[in-house]
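Subject: design request, 203 residues
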């Protein structure tokens, strides 16, 4: 949760800096977020490629474990589709893209900002931070009422790192492999699904 609060703090500081023009105009006019996205994608690739345990985990999983991250994807898309029916401000493609962050707020928010604009990027940031915080706070409730896989689904991509300790605390270390695998798969799919959704929506 500390990381999420730090991200929010920098976000608020950025808003204040923009409102009161505390930064040089040249800095505001150049699209540095695009370069940040390139760097972030590079670092994500390094992180996944260098994580031998994660790569070995993918090789060793069975079909049942494979179904977990894809069930998370389907459940997320059902949820955002239901939300689409009760609002009229956002397109279904935008909602699906935001949902495709799966809690990975840093990457998804920058990517969506570049494709669909800063407003949607902010919504993606806040939505995915909220997903992580809800998982950190409500995991015991999820386990009690919805079963041991519920917090893994709620954590999304964060189930492999930031929410993993609290998840394993309440569902046991036996489920750690499922949590990590689901998080790894969803992390890999975040940029792919966001790009795919907007590509299809523009056809």
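Subject: RE: design request

Done. Sequence follows.
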């Amino acid at each position: 949760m500390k990381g999420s609060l730090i991200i929010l703090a920098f976000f608020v500081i950025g808003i204040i800096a923009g409102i009161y023009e505390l930064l040089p105009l040249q800095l505001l006019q150049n699209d540095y977020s695009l370069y940040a996205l390139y760097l972030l994608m590079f670092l994500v690739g390094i992180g996944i490629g260098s994580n031998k345990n994660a790569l070995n985990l993918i090789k060793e999983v069975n079909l049942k474990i494979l179904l977990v991250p894809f069930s998370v994807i389907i459940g997320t898309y059902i949820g955002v589709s239901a939300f689409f029916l009760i609002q009229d401000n956002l397109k279904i493609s935008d909602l699906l893209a935001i949902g495709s962050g799966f809690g990975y707020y840093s990457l998804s928010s920058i990517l969506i900002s570049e494709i669909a604009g800063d407003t949607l990027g902010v919504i993606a940031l806040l939505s995915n931070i909220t997903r992580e915080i809800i998982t950190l706070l409500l995991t015991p409730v999820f386990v009690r009422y919805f079963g041991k896989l519920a917090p893994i689904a709620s954590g999304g991509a964060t189930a492999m790192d930031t929410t993993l300790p609290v998840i394993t605390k309440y569902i046991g270390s036996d489920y750690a492999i499922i949590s990590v695998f689901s998080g790894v798969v969803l992390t890999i799919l975040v940029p792919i699904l966001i790009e795919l959704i907007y590509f299809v929506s523009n056809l």
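Residues 33-201 form one domain.
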